[in-house]
Design a protein that fits this description.
Low-confidence stretches: none
Shape: elongated
Oligomer: single chain
Largest sheet: 7 strands, mixed
Number of helices: 9
CATH class of the largest domain: Alpha Beta
Helix content: 40-55%
Length: 218
């Protein structure tokens, strides 16, 4: 079974013997791929919409995986159960992901969270750190000209500075080519914005200049 680069990268963070909830599972392609390529995997394929789950059920039936994948209609992690130890969410906005993961009671038994937000990645990092998870890994994946960030969080505490929350402690440390290209583009973007801000908007110009100074440390 073939899946796209983004889902394939996410799958690399899922270990054998995991009990997963795939929130916004779409057609359950990730869940099926994991069950076919990992040992002793259990999956809750959850989605808020009925139509994707109809196709998900058809796909699960095709691979005869009804004993390993349970399809549930529900909002966010409302469909989670007490055995679940791993949450996967990809393809959603960062603020939506934050809303989903905002209930400490529902994630109290979760040891690992794997996320791939479409935006507001720094806000996602900040929120998960606040929820007492640390960034155990992160990487960038390019798919059809679009660069996606994949974040892995594990339960525990670590301190991060502002630069690390904005751009990722592991991405900064590894300094891979794709990351460096993104940083250079971001520097150019921030400088262009700074030029366009009227000189009488002193505070706005100062804040942006401070952010430029920060990104220049990478």
């Amino acid at each position: 079974m073939k899946i796209n680069n983004r889902l394939k990268a996410i799958s690399n963070y899922i270990e054998d013997n995991s009990n997963i909830i795939d929130v916004g599972c779409d057609h359950s392609l990730l869940g099926i791929y994991l069950c076919l390529n990992r040992n002793n995997i259990k999956v809750i394929a959850s989605d808020i919409n009925k139509n994707p789950l109809i196709q998900a059920k058809a796909n699960i039936e095709k691979y005869n995986l009804y004993d390993k994948i349970e399809v549930k209609l529900g909002n966010g992690i409302d469909t989670i159960d007490e055995k679940t130890d791993t949450i996967v969410i990809s393809g959603m906005g960062g603020k939506t992901i934050i809303d989903i993961l905002n209930d400490k009671r529902k994630i109290k038994n979760i040891n690992k969270i794997v996320l791939s937000p479409n935006n507001d990645i720094n806000l996602v990092r900040k929120h998960l750190i606040k929820m007492k998870y640390y960034i155990s890994n992160e990487e960038l994946i390019k798919e059809k000209g679009i660069v996606y960030t994949i974040l892995e969080f594990k339960k525990g505490k670590k301190r991060y500075n502002k630069l690390e929350i904005l751009y990722g402690p592991i991405l900064i440390k590894n300094k891979e080519q794709l990351f460096l290209e993104l940083i250079e583009n971001e520097k150019k973007r921030l400088k262009e914005i700074h030029k366009m801000i009227p000189k009488n908007q002193i505070i706005k110009r100062y804040k942006l200049k401070r952010e430029i100074k920060l990104i220049n440390k990478i």
